[in-house]
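Re: that backbone. Tokens:
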């Protein structure tokens, strides 16, 4: 079946085409029982506009982001023989293809009541479509950005559009501190089970954590993030403020809420939990302390963690990927936040790492 749907009076929406390989497939029947194809695609497109560019069709024809203008047609195909979930690719100038596995739709029809099953499969279809349509509009550092970063931005949009699946949760990997045997006085480094660019919700929650902690950053960092758009180069610091520090001159990362650092008369630092009564002191950083980790477990896996940021960070990151080649040695995170990427990652892991 092939249905071409005209964009009616919506002057900037792309044309939506829709294909179904097997109308008799259980996944196709579920899709049509829960989803209006045009409405679902339109919602996904408008979510991409909103979260990637802060724009919608009511803003005005003279302010359309270039990425929005470039997409002329999106074709959704429900595949009966496809494994996995979905994928998106370009098929011509301004044309995008989204292939969605009918098997995944069937597998998502889960719940202990008919209503819960229908709600779950409907939200999963909408969430997958949002994720895939983001790929139609986002930038990729001229094809050089890591795949995990690209997938993380797409899931960040899904997260902020309130369509995360139940198994998502905000959690960091387990890690261990590895000293350098040749440099006993060197602090060494952390080794993680997975890294910031693992992709999908793992990366999405990291980006959202950066965004949600933004209000506590120095003013120059907040100005950098807020002023970065797809139409102008990034502002690396506020007027009159110091330039972004280098990785070697960074101040120590913020401690968890309620903790302070003090220095012993011997010159060695120690940390105090001021919320405890009486205050508790430790000689290791809280993220390495077993008692602290047990008292601050990872979020419950029973439901997805809600986003608490405004989406500014991944929007600014997407804007930088429009004009910039992705280079592993360059640090767009440092440009946007005044903090090195690895320092942000270690701070996130300190907040959300599971107990060892």
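Recovered sequence:
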């Amino acid at each position: 079946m092939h249905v071409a749907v005209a964009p009616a009076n919506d002057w900037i929406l792309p044309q939506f085409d829709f294909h179904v390989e097997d109308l008799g497939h259980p996944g196709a029947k579920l899709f049509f029982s829960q989803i209006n194809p045009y409405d679902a695609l339109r919602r996904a497109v408008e979510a991409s506009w909103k979260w990637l560019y802060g724009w919608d069709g009511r803003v005005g024809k003279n302010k359309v982001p270039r990425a929005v203008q470039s997409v002329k047609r999106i074709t959704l195909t429900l595949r009966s023989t496809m494994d996995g979930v979905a994928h998106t690719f370009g098929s011509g100038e301004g044309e995008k293809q989204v292939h969605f596995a009918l098997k995944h739709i069937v597998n998502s029809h889960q719940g202990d009541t008919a209503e819960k099953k229908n709600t779950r499969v409907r939200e999963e279809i909408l969430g997958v479509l949002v994720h895939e349509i983001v790929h139609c509009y986002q930038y990729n550092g001229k094809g050089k950005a890591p795949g995990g970063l690209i997938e993380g931005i797409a899931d960040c949009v899904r997260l902020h559009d309130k369509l995360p699946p139940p198994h998502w949760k905000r959690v960091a990997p387990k890690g261990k501190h590895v000293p350098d045997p040749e440099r006993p006085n060197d602090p060494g480094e952390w080794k993680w089970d997975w890294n910031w660019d693992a992709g999908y919700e793992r990366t999405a929650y990291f980006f959202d954590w950066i965004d949600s902690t933004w209000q506590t950053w120095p003013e120059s960092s907040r100005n950098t993030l807020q002023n970065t758009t797809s139409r102008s180069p990034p502002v690396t610091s506020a007027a009159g403020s110091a330039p972004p520090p280098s990785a070697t001159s960074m101040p120590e990362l913020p401690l968890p809420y309620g903790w302070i650092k003090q220095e012993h008369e011997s010159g060695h630092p120690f940390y105090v939990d001021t919320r405890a009564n009486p205050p508790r002191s430790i000689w290791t950083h809280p993220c390495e302390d077993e008692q602290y980790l047990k008292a601050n477990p990872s979020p419950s896996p029973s439901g997805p963690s809600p986003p608490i940021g405004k989406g500014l960070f991944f929007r600014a990151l997407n804007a930088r990927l429009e004009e910039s080649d992705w280079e592993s040695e360059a640090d767009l995170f440092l440009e946007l936040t005044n903090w090195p990427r690895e320092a942000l990652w270690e701070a996130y892991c300190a907040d959300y790492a599971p107990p060892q």
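Confidence is low (pLDDT under 50) at residues 229-253, 297-302. The chain has two domains: 2-137, 175-256+296-352.
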